[in-house]
Amino acid sequence: CSIPLGAVGTLTAPSRQDWEQRQEEDTLLIERILLLVRNVLHVPPDPSEEQGVDGDATVHDRVLWALHISGMDDLLKFLASAQTEQQWALHVLEIISLMFRDQSPEDLAALGQGQAGAEHGEDTRELQSLRQRELAEKRTRALQRPHRHSRFGGSYVLQGLKAIGDRDVVFHKGLHNLKSYSHDLGKEPRRVPRRRQAA
User: Fold this and answer.
1) Does 39 score more than 50 pLDDT?
2) Where is this region: Disordered (predicted)?
């Protein structure tokens, strides 16, 4: 893993130049270094050589750590995201896929949530207990509230009194207002001009 460490400085200088100013030797150098990193990461693990304690870092993990310490991962991010460096996209993609070769998606997703996931779970439980307490208080307040009479008097069908379209009249007022019912109830009286008003 000492080869990629020395290659970072060599790779950084040509990558800072614009692609128009680069010589062909610089382009070949960048490609060779990316292929070297890819080939180092492509070496398959050898279980007989890597007899360590459970949870110990494998050779692949140590190579990745060396790449991180050297700043190669930042350089790879730059090459992957820069608009002018799209010619290296497949090499960078292959290197990134080899970096995550031995990792499962579930492990990677749970890795960053160690402490944060525990705090998030605790916050969720606290919010749920507060919500249940609030609902209980709301229920007790509803039971203590005095019952007031509803102003809704109901709706009644007046049989024998026809509305428009040969249907029975539906009366929405209280029954005590039924004596003063007329079809003009609720309608505004038509205004008669002064000239036509009766003397």
Assistant:
1) yes
2) 180-199
Nearest to 41 by CA among 9, 64, 57, 68: 64
What's the pLDDT band for 88 if we cut at 50, 70, 90?
confident
Cβ atoms of residues 3 and 66 within 8 Å: no
What is the average pLDDT across 159-185?
77
Q: Is residue 190 a part of any domain in this protein?
A: no
74 found inside a domain = yes
pLDDT in tens, 134-144: 999 998 888 87
Helix, strand, or coil here: 12?
Answer: helix
* First CA to last CA distance, the chain: 114
Are residues 94 and 36 located together in one domain of the fold? yes
CA distance 101 to 104: 8
Query: Does residue 108 form part of some domain?
Result: no
**Residue whose C-alpha is closest to residue 91's, from 41, 17, 165, 157:** 41
Task: Give the mean pLDDT of 67-75.
Answer: 86
Say how many domains are in the chain: 2
**Nearest-angstrom CA–CA distance, 75 and 4:** 12
3-state SS record for 122-148: HHHHHHHHHHHHHHHHHHHHHHHCCCC
2 inside domain: no
Range of the domain at 85: 24-45+57-103
Distance CA 181, CA 171 (A): 9
